[in-house]
């Protein structure tokens, strides 16, 4: 009797890559529904996301079985269930931003007229965790969850400034220092030099380093043990020449909310 050939075990690294890809697909699917804002069939998801039909079927089936996707109408496609919101809300409630941070960002946005955001470190990136958009028709548009490399913007460098030299060195070893524009700092020495200039200046600034035609001003926002930063950004034509004035507005706002924010020294 001929015995079936046992499956060949996949190398551990190959299995790890597959698992990481599956995790990335789940996140990509959520972003897809956030853009689409209506149910999608398996065929639509496969075509729109460029996934094989079999992989799409397996992923959607798993998420539906776990209660994360449902069919609002029979054969009308799938849509995320409120279970996602409940999980995210539970996570956010465990470590919410102080209400004073929301008030600070709103006041600064109102006084400057520009988009104001609060960022936190996420590996070698800064990630926006609170955003107040400008009311101008032409403005800096960003969303909670958007990421920017720490080295490539004032908001990231205001976070880097809160790390020790040895901590920054460890982060630098993981960075690729990609050039996004002619003004991007693309070496450790260049970033460190700009951090020193920011210390002398009293604030961090940027000029179209990561996004074209965007100027920004940032300051550290060290709340308790959290290394956050706050940034005001907008079109170069409107904001570049106002950076010192914008920095003064942010500094005054931080001083007003210092007690409520439980700020610690960055030194």
TrEMBL record:
SMART domains named in the record: HTH_ICLR
UniProt-listed PROSITE patterns: HTH_ICLR, ICLR_ED
GO molecular function, one term: DNA-binding transcription factor activity
Name of protein: Transcriptional regulator, IclR family
Residue ranges of every copy of the IclR-ED domain listed in the record: 83-267
Claim: Transcription regulation is one of the keywords in the record: yes
Ranges of residues in domain HTH iclR-type: 20-82
Any single GO BP term: negative regulation of DNA-templated transcription
Pfam families associated with the record: HTH_IclR, IclR_C
Record's keyword terms, sorted: DNA-binding, Transcription, Transcription regulation
Domain of life of the organism encoding this protein: Bacteria
